[in-house]
Amino acid sequence: MTQFKPNREVVVVGVGLHPFGRFRGKDLATLAREAVVEALKDCGVRWRDIPVAYFGHVYYHGMSVGETALGSLGLTGIPIVNVENACSSGSTAFWQAYWGITSGVYDLALAFGAEKVPGGPVTVTAADSPERYIGGDHMMAGYALRMRRYMEETGAPASALAQISVKARQNAALNPYAHRKETYTVEDVLSSRPIADPLTLFQCCPTSEGSAAAVLCAREVLGSYGLDESRAIKVVAAALTSGNYNGRGSDHSAFSPYRTEPAALAAYEMSGLGPEDVDLVQVHDAATIGELQQIESLQLTPKGEAWRATVEGRTALTGDIPVNTDGGLLAMGHPFGATGIRMVHETVTQLRGEAGARQVNNPRVGVAQCSGAGDVTTVQIFAR
Amino acid sequence: MNDPDGASGTLLGMRCLKCGVCVFGDAIFCQACSSDELEAVDLSSSGVLFSYTIVRVPPDGWPGPVPYVLGEVELPEGPHVLAEVIGMEHADLQIGKEVRLALEPVQSGETGPTLMVYKWAPSAIPTASRQEG
Fold it and tell me: ipTM score here?
């Protein structure tokens, strides 16, 4: 599948993050702006030099929240695009920023995202959809269907899936931005409140609030903006796909567990890299089972064997394929619009060698993968 | 619906005349090949549990009892249909188990009309004597 013809080399020069958690007194635009200010400070790009911005968010907080958030920095009249693409809204905003630059239209671009997700089970359909009274629209129930099927097909024990949550919290304990930093054991995870069997509460990501931002630039103009090339991280692939399950399944069905694979293959082709080149990975672990199926879709382990890699410690910070090094959705929390760019933030921070206590040993290539309803999948590959 | 009371019925699907892929419910174009040459088909009233979960924290808008069992059922024609599984003890749930279609009245939303909704029930027990599980 060749759908990408990148032209100019694009780098991420600045990243910013607002802590994930609950911030009742802060509206969405304020939350979003704070991450943008951090990203601009991180690279020294002046707000008035940003020629285009893409803002990922899902829940409705009035129209044109992106314009409200950025207008407070000064009205510059630039195009600002509000992006809704389910849980991949932030990573889709990043994808658009990337293509805006590599196509030659812009030299710089801002991608940012924010969300204030309400508590309780996440649904996909409109409130009056038949799916609500049929009982099939329940994001975690969908993951539970996948988990049950995966365990049946692979023989993965419940403890292997619980270990994913344990690892997430261990990583998050080293990350001041995480929503949930307390560590726990496999037994704690398995005995937490059941949500949709076999998923327990501690195997489901918290619904959260937070924001993230990234400033992208064409490498050839770094000098003219006085930007630090040594902290610039190359974007070597940015792929986006939507669902293709032949109409036999649905967003929430266990049918077709490797829906991330087309985006993964497209990104590998675009980058000229393969799974063997990858040093660390951020994947969409909205529930524990998600992490396993994303790892396998990215071909980092054979299909049906990611749970073994988890049990063997290979996906831990000290393993050979560290996964969700900042705590992932399971411990960072999941503010939809921010999550995809939070993954970019972590990947860039790790590739720069600036991740502090959770720094992976000398990584050169990192992958960020995000999934959303409609089977919206993004895979981005970064290199230094 | 197959009778005036709406107590029994058949799931309808659409089959592509070009590539043969069959989907649950209405379709204008084939989801696999985009052909517009489709025919309406009656789907089988029995299928097997592809996966299931016991939902203990229901989503907004769920009008039924809690917990409830959500089953993903694979029909012989191919489609996977998600719906509540009724009349089955949790201990009897098993991937691969055969289930059959059942229709039950459900209140649609807080003020909506009562509608007949498709569910999955054990294939061994006839509709009339079904016990709630």
Answer: 0.92
